[in-house]
Write a structure and sequence with these properties.
With about 280 residues, this protein is mostly beta strands. The protein contains no helices and 22 strands. The strands form five sheets. Strands 10, 11, 14, 16, 20 and 22 form a six-stranded antiparallel β-sheet that branches. Strands 2, 3, 5, 6 and 8 form a five-stranded antiparallel β-sheet that branches. Strands 12, 13, 15, 17 and 21 form a five-stranded antiparallel β-sheet that branches.
Length: about 280
């Protein structure tokens, strides 16, 4: 078996929140020697200066008119935060591979990749991806990814903040949960700590909680916001074929200005499901 990587060319997503096809607005053609796509790894960077009080909070989509049943694959990947004042540097989170295990059966299959900013930015971001291909069997079940349509603004108190719900259709088990966090207006010496949760009567157990990767903020008139990575948690939770998840982020420390968050899940469509109330 041979495993190799190809590139989906980065393209600008503009400064708004529109969904934009990358790879120079062309489909990515999976070569006929490949039996499928094992994994995708989105990456991005700003096309101009990062802007104070702005975060890049980006959703990446994998779609295809050539293959049926590959959706949804909507991934919100690592946020990059603007600082306070004329800040000296930016910490771009480590890029991560997301397993997809999509069989293409040795055909020239077209796959479309899209970037979609969850918040508008002064500087546009270029987004592309690595695509991990194989001419052998896939490493597991096909993975599906779902997230709400939009992010949610939090309050400033040390309190719970309700997010937008996630509806998972046709799934049997959740196997990954994660939360992305975008800092807006920065206050010196205020860092961010908290945790996420999802709840549903159609999931067993009915609630899952996991920590936010803490975000650090420096001291002074021009400070950077430091978040080297985000925290994704592997789980194994039974769900009903139709499962609506309520989402929440809990601020454990009061802050001066609100910020944004969005939660995502990965699921599979094979195996026992949860039947209960």
């Amino acid at each position: 078996m041979t495993i190799w990587t190809d590139i989906v060319l980065s393209s600008s997503g503009g400064t708004g929140v529109a969904k934009t096809r990358v790879n120079n607005d062309q489909p990515f053609v999976v070569p006929a020697i490949a039996s499928g796509v094992l994994e995708i790894t989105p990456y991005q960077a700003a096309t101009a200066a990062y802007t104070a009080a702005q975060s890049a909070l980006t959703k990446f989509h994998m779609e295809s008119n050539s293959l049926s049943g590959i959706g949804p694959k909507r991934i919100v990947f690592g946020a990059t935060h603007g600082g306070l004042g004329t800040f000296a540097g930016v910490m771009v989170p480590v890029i991560k591979g997301w397993p997809v295990n999509v069989m293409t059966n040795r055909a020239n299959v077209n796959v479309d990749f899209y970037t979609e900013s969850q918040v508008a930015n002064t500087a546009a971001f270029r987004t592309g991806a690595e695509v991990l291909l194989s001419d052998g069997p896939m490493g597991g079940l096909q993975e599906y990814y779902e997230a709400p349509n939009d992010e949610t603004a939090t309050g400033t108190a040390a309190a719970a903040n309700a997010g937008n719900s996630i509806t998972v259709n046709g799934g049997s088990r959740l196997n990954l949960v994660y939360g992305q966090f975008g800092v807006g207006t920065v206050t010196a010496s205020e860092s961010y700590i908290g945790y996420f949760s999802i709840r549903s009567p159609d999931m067993y157990p009915n609630e899952e909680q996991w920590a936010l990767q803490p975000v650090g903020v420096g001291l002074g008139a021009a400070v950077e916001v430091l978040a080297p990575d985000f925290h994704a948690k592997k789980v194994d939770l039974k769900i009903n074929p139709t499962c609506t998840l309520t989402t929440e982020y809990f601020n454990e420390e009061a802050v001066t200005a609100a910020h944004n968050f969005i939660i995502g899940v990965a699921f599979v469509r094979s195996g026992p499901t949860f039947v209960g109330q």
